[in-house]
Amino acid sequence: MVQAWIYNASDPASPRAPHKYTPNRAVPLSTLDSLGVQQWTREQTTSSPDFVDKIRSQRGYVNTDTVCLSREKLPDYDATLQKFFTVHMHEDEEIRYLLEGSGYFDVQAPRKEGEEDEEWIRIALTAGEMIILPAGMYHRFTLDENNFLRCMRLFKEDPKWTPLNRAPELEDNQYRRAYVETYLKPSSSVQAA
Predict the structure, then answer these.
(1) Has 90 been labeled as part of a binding site?
(2) Per the annotation, does 145 bind a ligand?
(3) Which residues bind Ni(2+) (predicted)?
(4) Known binder of ligand: residue 72?
């Protein structure tokens, strides 16, 4: 099952470390749901594509590809992981189905009323789990300390991956505005379990 917690930004460890508070500040899946993050877990089987085919059909995904993130397979490994960890958004959904390995998506939590510091929710994913981040949501990605992940990416059109790095002018982007209007409310706060 997908796990999530408040990211401890004061932890000086590598971004690939868990960055948990002590005690951990777990985030219930209902909070992810309220932010538009959808997730599924499926027991890994070697020959049953029905799980992915069902999601593809329901959501209109017509193309897929598979990527492997490891020091051996990814050119410019460290620079590429740094690029993935730069806060960005997309103008379409980001959907990933993990086939092997593990990693973290961090999503921006709603600001608590009266507070200016932003919090991040770290979402840990392992093989057999699928996640969809909505268009317009600020997020970042990194591998965990295992430094390996193989995943399927799904697309509604031709495969593309166009990150828009966070910048003040993105607040006027129609996809960002739609995300904020739909999911972020001024009085929202992150619920820890």
Answers:
(1) yes
(2) no
(3) 88, 90, 94, 139
(4) no
